[in-house]
Design brief:
This is Nuclease HARBI1. This protein has one domain (2-243). The radius of gyration is 18 Å and the shape is globular. The chain is mainly α. It contains 14 helices and no strands.
């Protein structure tokens, strides 16, 4: 399963990244290391949950599940720690921001942030078989409410996943895995992040499946919502019903 997610994700923005790296080589820019803040220690648990959508305890639980897939063999060239890789990815799920913005937030380049978000997403999504089989979704509320909570916990699902359509699946699955982990941990929905500017009220975004079209490149298929809705309705609805 992990190999499949790698295959459908690995070519996303390859041309852009290769051109950026080529440009770096041509102009021979000196390698610089941006300051990386320790958000895990900086925020208390309330602010941490607001910004990263998980409590610190659940964040460490998730890290323990995937850490072996994120570790570097050494600390050479100021390698990015597994916890910071996870926090970068969680912040992306929480905001849906451009990956260059996420890189600035965590003190790394766009190409590095892209690779890390990919690596962490695949690692989390690869947990799906075990975690979905163990899923404890017991709510008897309508399916739509379940999806609404899921989107509100990880706003990237409502605000727009800014990757090619074929690469949306690992991100959708990864956020679903995290959502199930948090349900099992009995974590309440975190407060809305005041730093996120919504294009419409949350109820409208959830009901309409709104995606801000202007945040996608013109060459990307705009018809994302029907495809994603079909995936959710056909796959996750069956998951929910099996667990009742």
């Amino acid at each position: 399963m992990e190999a499949a997610y790698n295959f459908i994700f690995e070519h996303e923005n390859d041309d852009i990244l290769e051109n950026l790296e080529l440009l770096d080589n041509i102009v021979r820019r000196p390698k610089t290391y941006k300051e990386r803040r320790d958000y895990f220690e900086e925020y208390d648990d309330v602010d941490f949950r607001t910004r990263f959508r998980l409590s610190k305890e659940s964040c460490l639980d998730v890290l323990q599940m995937i850490e072996d897939k994120l570790e570097y063999p050494s600390n050479r060239n100021k390698s990015i720690s597994p916890i910071n890789q996870l926090l970068l990815t969680l912040r992306y799920y929480a905001t849906g921001s451009q990956q260059i913005t996420m890189g600035d937030y965590c003190g790394m380049s766009k190409s590095t942030s892209h690779r890390i978000i990919h690596r962490v997403t695949v690692a989390i999504a690869s947990l799906e078989e075990r975690l979905y089989n163990e899923s404890q979704i017991r709510s008897r509320n309508p399916i739509e409410r379940l999806f609404g909570i899921w989107k509100r916990r990880f706003p990237v699902l409502a605000l727009g996943i800014q990757v090619q359509l074929k690469n949306c699946l690992p991100i959708i699955v990864a956020t679903a895995v995290l959502h199930n982990i948090l349900i099992k941990a009995k974590e309440e929905l975190p407060s809305d992040d005041p730093e996120i500017q919504l294009p419409a009220p949350w109820d409208d975004l959830i009901e309409q499946g709104h995606i801000r079209e202007h945040r996608h490149n013109d060459n990307i298929n705009r018809d994302i919502n029907p495809v994603r809705r079909s995936l959710i309705n056909n796959y996750f609805k069956s998951l929910h019903l099996q667990s009742l």
